[in-house]
Each structure stands twice: as C-alpha cells, then as structure tokens.
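User: Reviewer 2 asked us to show a designed sequence for the structure in our supplementary figure. I'm pasting the structure tokens here. Could you produce the per-position amino acids so we can include them in the response letter?
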C-alpha cells in the first residue's frame, strides 16, 4: 500500500483552479509525503503535460485528482433567476457572464491520460466511478482513492472497488466531495466522520478537513487514518499557484462559510461580499454556476473571488512545501511521543 511507503504521513490536497502545480506536488512527494495534481478545469492535454512535468521534478509517487461528472438534476428556472440576479455584478465589474453550460470536465480524456501515464495514485471527487473504471486503473498500476463525506458513500466506494478512501470532514476548505448536490449538506466534522467510516469499512483512510499542524495530524492517525490530507496550509507555499489576492486574504482572521454562490456546489471559503449577498439565491447547479461566475471571479476584487479556505486558515503561512511536510511529520511524531509519556501503560 502506497500510504505505508510514505516517510511522512502527509498528503497535499489537490486544489483545482491554479494552486496545485507540478512544483508543489513534486516538493511534497520529494519530502516524503504524497503530492497531488488537480485535473479539474484543465484539458486532458494539460493534465498530461503536468504529469510529465512532475515526473521531471521527482521520481517519487504522486497523484492526480479527477472530478466525477455531476449528474444531479438542475432547476433551469432557478438557474435563470440566478443569472438575472448576477447581471448587476457583471455591470459592476465590466465583464460578461459566462454561459451556464453543462459538461463532464473531459472525463473520458482525463481517465485515458492517468491510465496511459500510469499515474501512481488517482483520486476522485464528486462521486464514485463505475467499478470498471476503478478496475481498469488498478490494472494499469494505479492506486485508486475516492473522496467520501458519509459512511453511506464509503460503503458505495468500497463496493465499487476503491483501494483507499479520503474522508472529508465539514471543516475542509473548497468543495465538499459529496456524491450528490442536494440539500441538506452533511456537516459532520472530521473526527466523528472518521469514526463512522472506519466502523463501516476496512480499507485504508486518508483524513481531510481543517487540519493545520502536527498535533492535528497525530489526532487523525490515532483516530484510524493512515495519513492526513491538508490543502489550505499549502496555499501560501511558494511552489503553489495561488492567486496573490487569495494569499493575502488567508492571512486574516475572517470566518469561513459554505456556499454555492460561486460554483453551484457547496464549498467552504472566506466570507466576502459576494458570498454574503448571493449564497441564499444560488441554485444547486454545477458546473453551470461555475461557468456563469468565471468572469466575476477573475475581475480582481477579493470581495467577488472564491477564496476557498478551511476552518483553520489563519495558521497557514508562507513556507517551502518540503519544509511544511517535514514540520508536520515531526510535529505529529512529537505529539504522539508526548501523549505516550503522559499516559504510559
């Protein structure tokens, strides 16, 4: 099992939209963790190029995350109302609203890339692939990971043949990895979710959600995870492709909230004007809303950007990714040793 081969129990979360880069993934894997590329929103050719660029930077295993196509029903009237609502935002920033189209994010092409390139680890978000997909990847030498947010999703993923589960608690930044896109959104926190999932299945688990330091990593290892996945803590790293305005916002003490306002799927980000004004009106329509708001998010105003962040974002700081991985690993070992001393047999 690839998780058992890591010298640091740290997984860098795949962060679509720019932050995940070959340099970041290579630095994390080179330091003993598991780095990830994010295939979301890229073309299949761009994913292949990033995989090959990462291989030029490190000989260590790394992963690629792929979005499972969302087949949830969409309320066309609600989507049209939301588009009308955002017309004023478009005028405000002098941009054109995007076309709220449906697409599968080049699903087949990206599956072909990770299979042909024999990417060591392939993870999935927004659903569980068909068992034949997981079997084909396994035959190509890929370890498969499915992101889950409930025990029910965990059972589905294991039945389909997933090798590993990434258990994502409600504290996590960015999109919830739920299989569906309906209310109510499960708000189970990471530790109780780990307990529920580990009671339901026996495959290795990666824990994700609001983790920020070595003690947090130790906590999820004790709770049954094989490794801890962190995303927000890697956003300020120099190797990350994080927008400078996003980096600045992370340093503040602003609160986070879950919203559909930017993409049509529930995602946790820093509270700003756009999130506050439009969350209640945003329909459950992904990727339609994602395409609709693209120009607004790129207008250069942090009050209209999707500033994805986990609940512990204020602990993120600029630090080379390799140093962060080693610091997290050392902190986890120190916390476990300290606890053992306090509570000897």
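Assistant: Here is a per-position design you can include in the supplement:
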């Amino acid at each position: 099992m690839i998780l058992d081969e890591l010298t640091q129990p740290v997984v860098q979360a795949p962060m679509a939209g720019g932050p995940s880069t070959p340099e970041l993934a290579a630095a994390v894997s080179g330091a003993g963790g598991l780095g990830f590329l994010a295939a979301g929103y890229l073309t299949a050719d761009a994913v292949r190029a990033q995989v090959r660029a990462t291989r030029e930077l490190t000989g260590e295993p790394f992963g690629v995350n792929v979005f499972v196509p969302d087949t949830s029903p969409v309320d066309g009237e609600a989507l049209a109302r939301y588009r009308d609502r955002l017309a004023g935002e478009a005028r405000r920033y002098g941009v054109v609203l995007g076309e709220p189209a449906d697409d599968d994010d080049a699903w087949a092409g990206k599956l072909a890339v990770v299979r042909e390139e024999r990417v060591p680890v392939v993870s999935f978000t927004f659903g569980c692939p068909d068992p034949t997909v997981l079997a084909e990847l396994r035959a190509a030498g890929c370890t498969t990971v499915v992101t889950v947010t409930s025990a029910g999703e965990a059972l589905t993923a294991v039945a389909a043949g997933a090798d590993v589960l990434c258990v994502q608690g409600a504290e996590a930044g960015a999109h919830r990895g739920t299989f569906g896109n309906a209310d109510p959104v499960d708000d189970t926190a990471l530790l109780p979710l780990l307990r529920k999932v580990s009671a339901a299945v026996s495959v290795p688990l990666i824990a994700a959600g609001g983790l920020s330091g070595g003690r947090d990593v130790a906590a999820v290892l004790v709770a049954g995870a094989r490794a801890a996945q962190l995303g927000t803590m890697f956003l300020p790293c120099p190797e990350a492709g994080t927008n400078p305005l996003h980096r600045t916002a992370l340093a503040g003490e602003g609160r986070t909230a879950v919203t559909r306002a930017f993409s049509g799927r529930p995602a946790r980000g820093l509270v700003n004007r756009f999130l506050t004004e439009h969350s209640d009106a945003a329909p459950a329509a992904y990727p339609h809303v994602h395409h609709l708001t693209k120009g607004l998010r790129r207008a250069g105003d942090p009050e209209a950007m999707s500033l994805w962040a986990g609940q512990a974002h204020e602990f993120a700081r600029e630090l080379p990714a390799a140093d962060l991985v080693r610091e997290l690993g050392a902190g986890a070992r120190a916390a476990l040793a300290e606890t053992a001393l306090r509570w000897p047999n």
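For the response letter, you might also mention the following. The chain has one domain: 6-340. The chain has 14 helices and eleven strands.
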